[in-house]
From TrEMBL:
Biological process (GO), any one: trehalose catabolic process
GO MF terms, alphabetically ordered: alpha,alpha-trehalase activity
Cofactor(s), names only, from the UniProt record: phosphate
Keyword Zinc-finger belongs to the record: no
Domain GH15-like positions: 216-586
Source organism per UniProt: Streptomyces brasiliensis
Enzyme class: hydrolase
Protein name from the UniProt record: Trehalase
Lineage: Bacteria, Bacillati, Actinomycetota, Actinomycetes, Kitasatosporales
Protein's pathway: Glycan degradation; trehalose degradation; D-glucose from alpha,alpha-trehalose: step 1/1
Trehalase-like N-terminal domain boundaries: 3-135
Enzyme Commission identifier(s): 3.2.1.28
Length: 596
């Protein structure tokens, strides 16, 4: 049976990440970056597309697993008739090269353990040439080279285009494996001590987690979400990828499979807010600085997403040799939505930089001039239809959320000039723009018959992004139109007690241009909790939040979506947007006393 998405746990070194299954197999790992080719791609194919499994002989699924408290160090325990072992998985923060460390420790009895390593570079396509060198197994193919060693050395042999090891451990005995990648044209990097790396990793993660200023209810899940966001951060640049994976399906067996290993501007303000409120100003500044570098240039060329270092070209193509997760094809690399027009991202950038200024992040002299250029471009272009927040592929429309975010852009510029009158800018012109956009949205984006805002002008359909209207300040939460919108979204987009992004499958719903359906969108469900709280229904909001937290897997991770009918997580995993929603909603619902 194919593993479920929630069967996986995450390890990483803040430059890439691996997914480890309950069966002890690492089924996904891209080296050396999040968006590099995978050397383990069983996640999207089968075992011949690359994996690394360590487990007791004859065992299928672990007895239990957990992270060391406040770390990204994963412990997996296996109870067998012969005894019990623990496998500890981690990726230490790298010096020069990425390492995967797997430590097998005997806890009781005497257990025979088997390791099967099948390296397949370029997303499971290329079988490398293997050789022995000084006690190592070395795999080379094109630009990639991987070295495997064990401490102490154990019996290892080649079979079926894989590398196998088998050994026994008794209580107190340990065997450590280290897998190291480097460019094949360079010499092998210095060896890491696996046991020292374990101690250092635990200390570093716990020291980082201790900086969290939130002390309220659900602190453990908030810290787990923050650790996940940290793990999805590309440390050299500060960019945060939307997820560690590509093409995990939004519908099992369907075609809604996208590459999320890039950085989205739509996440900008919510990410910054979560980091600042939780006390992580250094990470917030790194994200703000990545944002400034990525969007620099002609405002007409602003993209909705960028690579981890700000790369702009992310061409989309399909990998025909991979069958897809649980048969969900195609498997896509790159993301064609990069070329879309989404007016909302201008509002996201302006809002993020306004928040950065208000929360005391270190000033950047060129920041305001960039904001002024963006707003001047928006003043002449805001009436265009666009593809909207959800990157629909069914044609451009006058999306209400996009227009609301245009209002946000103008509003934040106006508020900045009112607070800092020494800054240059067209205060009266931007005020007029703000008023014009507000008036148009209320006239064309609101359905008075149903007392709700709609997905786009003239539509009867709804969009969960409308729940953000009071959060961004477009209308106060007690406005009858906003209360009506919250009720309508909950009634019409509700799915098993949670919320879909928008409607699918009806004769009138052709907005995304794709066949099939998808699950409840977790970030939007957190937004509903926020909106219920803001409109005076705090108890309902807290009950919804508690149910959402309950969707986390056994190690506290959330994918993009959830299917209430099959009780399965869906979409790329773990999903930054979902964990950002969890952090922000916890801070919203349980006050600011514990959040600093």
């Amino acid at each position: 049976m194919h593993p479920r998405i929630e069967d996986y746990a995450l390890i990483g070194d803040e430059q890439t990440a691996a997914l480890v299954g309950k069966d002890g197999s690492i089924d996904w790992l891209c080296l050396p970056r999040f968006d590099s080719g995978a050397c383990f791609a069983r996640l999207l194919g089968d075992e011949n597309n690359g994996h690394w499994r360590i487990a007791p002989v004859g065992a299928e699924t672990c007895s239990g697993r957990s992270y060391r408290p406040d770390t990204l160090v994963l412990d997996t325990e296996w109870e067998t008739p012969d005894g019990t072992i623990r496998v500890t998985d981690l990726m230490p923060q790298r010096d020069r090269a990425p390492d995967v460390v797997r430590i097998v420790e005997g806890l009781s009895g005497k257990v025979t353990v088997h390791s099967t390593l099948k390296l397949r570079f370029d997303y499971g396509l290329i079988i490398p040439w293997m050789r022995k060198s000084g006690g190592h197994r070395v795999a080379i193919a094109g630009p990639d080279s991987v070295w495997l060693r064990s401490e102490p050395a154990v019996r290892t042999w080649g079979q079926d285009f894989g590398t196998h090891s088998e050994f026994t451990v008794e209580a107190g005995e340990r065997v450590a494996f280290v897998l190291t990648w480097h460019p094949s044209h360079e010499p092998r990097p210095p060896l890491v001590d696996p046991y020292r790396s374990l101690g250092t990793s635990i200390t570093d993660w716990q020291r980082w987690a201790a900086r969290c200023r939130y002390q309220g209810p659900y602190r453990d899940v908030v810290v787990r979400s923050l650790i996940t966001l940290k793990a999805l951060t590309y440390r050299p640049t500060g960019g945060i990828v939307a997820a560690a994976t590509t093409s995990l399906p939004e519908q099992l067996g369907g075609v809604r499979n996208w590459d999320y290993r890039y950085c989205w501007l739509r996440d900008a303000t919510l990410t910054l807010s979560a980091l600042v409120k939780a006390g992580y100003h250094n990470e917030a500044e790194a994200w703000r600085d990545w944002l400034l570098r990525a969007v620099a240039g002609d405002p007409a060329d602003l993209q909705i997403m960028y690579g981890v270092a700000g790369e702009r070209r992310l061409p989309e193509f399909e990998l025909a040799w991979l069958s897809g997760f649980a048969g969900s094809a195609p498997v896509r690399i790159g993301n064609g939505a990069v070329s879309q027009l989404q007016l909302d991202v201008y509002g996201e950038v302006m809002d993020s930089l306004w928040l950065a200024r208000r929360t005391g992040l270190s000033p950047k002299p060129h920041m305001w001039s960039l904001q002024g250029v963006l707003l001047e471009w928006l003043r002449t272009q805001w009436r265009q239809p666009d593809e909207g927040l959800w990157e629909v592929r069914g044609g451009r429309r006058q999306f209400v959320h996009s227009k609301v975010m245009v209002w946000v852009a103008a509003d934040r510029a106006v508020r900045t000039l009112e607070e800092y009158p020494e800054l240059p800018g067209d205060l009266e012109g931007w005020r007029a723009l703000r008023e014009e956009v507000h008036r148009e949205v209320c006239e064309k984006g609101y359905d008075p018959e149903r007392n709700t805002f709609t997905q786009y002008y003239g539509s009867r359909e709804l969009d969960a992004a409308l729940l953000l209207i009071p959060r961004v300040g477009f209308l106060p939460p007690d406005d009858p139109r906003m209360i009506g919108t919250v009720d309508a979204v909950r009634a019409e987009l509700g799915h098993g007690g949670f919320v879909r992004r928008y409607e699918y499958g009806s004769a009138d719903s052709t907005v995304d241009g794709l066949p099939g359906d998808e699950g409840a969108f977790l970030a939007c469900s957190f937004w509903l909790a926020d909106a219920l709280h803001l409109t005076g229904r705090t108890q309902e909001a807290r009950e919804l939040f508690d149910r959402l937290v309950g969707l986390s897997n056994d190690v506290g991770l959330l994918a993009e979506e959830y299917d209430p009918e099959s009780d399965r997580q869906l979409g790329n995993f773990p999903q930054a947007f979902s964990h950002i929603g969890l952090v922000n909603t916890a801070l919203t619902l349980f006050g600011t006393d514990g959040a600093g």
